[in-house]
């Protein structure tokens, strides 16, 4: 099977040193290592975009290339992993009842006119439009170690090694955040009718925060750390549902976030990207 993966990890942000995270680069590297190790991918099938290389233009260009290859019949599987901040932007397409879109924060994020600059923020609609062009038979698996709601920030710790939330408030709406989770760009606008071969993993529920945390002497996203561990522990043979349950059990009592899996039942009973 012809396949390609894009693993994105962003700890540093060009214009915003205060947004710094610690575990996102490790997440992307660990996802790539999981694919090439336990899941049997070739290194040539994987692209890593880390920190300054992970601009909006670079990320969308790589994904667009994958989609074009899939449309030409040259790819049958695409994997996209994202570890960075999430945020919110004003909905301009009219598809969100509360007037807010989920968005992803690239290295070159910037502000314009009191909000995020559209040229330097990735809105879920943009990813939806890209992935909507995939042929029906193409497998798409997305891993999001981020969050799109500030709700879980209440009581968050910022001491040394304390888990740090992967969310930044939008410039113009810091007091009016909505509880959000990104589903539409992978599953379609009706979350009850996901693409037949589309799978979306997210680090937390809409009212929770994905943690940037400290494990065994290094930083990782809690979601990615336990996803990799659960998949490796099963030798790559666990079904997605089994991986999810192992993750939730391992994280219970340690983190407030609960990982989510959105896909059809047949995909839940199959192994991860294997």
TrEMBL record:
<protein>
    <submittedName>
        <fullName>Putative C14 family peptidase</fullName>
    </submittedName>
</protein>
<dbReference type="GO" id="GO:0004197">
    <property type="term" value="F:cysteine-type endopeptidase activity"/>
</dbReference>
<dbReference type="GO" id="GO:0005737">
    <property type="term" value="C:cytoplasm"/>
</dbReference>
<feature type="domain" description="Peptidase C14 caspase">
    <location>
        <begin position="4"/>
        <end position="265"/>
    </location>
</feature>
<dbReference type="InterPro" id="IPR029030">
    <property type="entry name" value="Caspase-like_dom_sf"/>
</dbReference>
<dbReference type="Pfam" id="PF00656">
    <property type="entry name" value="Peptidase_C14"/>
</dbReference>
<dbReference type="GO" id="GO:0006508">
    <property type="term" value="P:proteolysis"/>
</dbReference>
<dbReference type="InterPro" id="IPR011600">
    <property type="entry name" value="Pept_C14_caspase"/>
</dbReference>
<dbReference type="InterPro" id="IPR050452">
    <property type="entry name" value="Metacaspase"/>
</dbReference>
């Amino acid at each position: 099977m012809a396949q390609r993966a894009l693993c994105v990890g962003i700890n540093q942000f060009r214009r915003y040193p205060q947004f710094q995270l610690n575990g996102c680069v490790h997440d992307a590297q660990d996802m790539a290592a999981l694919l090439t190790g336990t899941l049997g991918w070739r290194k040539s099938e994987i692209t890593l975009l880390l920190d300054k290389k992970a601009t909006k233009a670079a990320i969308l260009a790589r994904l667009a290339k994958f989609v074009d290859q899939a449309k030409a019949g040259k790819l049958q599987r695409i994997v996209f992993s994202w570890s960075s901040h999430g945020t919110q932007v004003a909905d301009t397409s009219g598809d969100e009842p509360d007037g807010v879109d989920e968005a992803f924060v690239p290295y070159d994020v910037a502000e314009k006119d009191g909000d995020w600059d559209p040229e330097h923020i990735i809105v879920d609609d943009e990813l939806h439009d890209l992935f909507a062009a995939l042929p029906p038979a193409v497998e798409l698996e997305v891993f999001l170690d981020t969050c799109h709601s500030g709700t879980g920030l209440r009581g968050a710790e910022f001491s040394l090694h304390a888990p740090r939330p992967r969310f930044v408030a939008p410039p113009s709406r810091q007091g009016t955040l909505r509880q959000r989770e990104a589903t539409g760009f992978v599953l379609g606008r009706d979350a009850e009718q996901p693409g037949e071969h589309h799978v979306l993993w997210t680090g937390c529920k809409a009212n929770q925060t994905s943690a940037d945390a400290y494990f065994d002497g290094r930083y990782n996203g809690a979601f990615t750390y336990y996803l990799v561990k659960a998949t490796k522990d099963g030798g790559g043979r666990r079904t997605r549902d089994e991986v999810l349950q192992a993750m939730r059990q391992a994280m219970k009592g340690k983190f407030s976030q609960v990982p989510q899996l959105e896909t059809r039942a047949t995909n839940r009973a199959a192994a991860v990207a294997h």
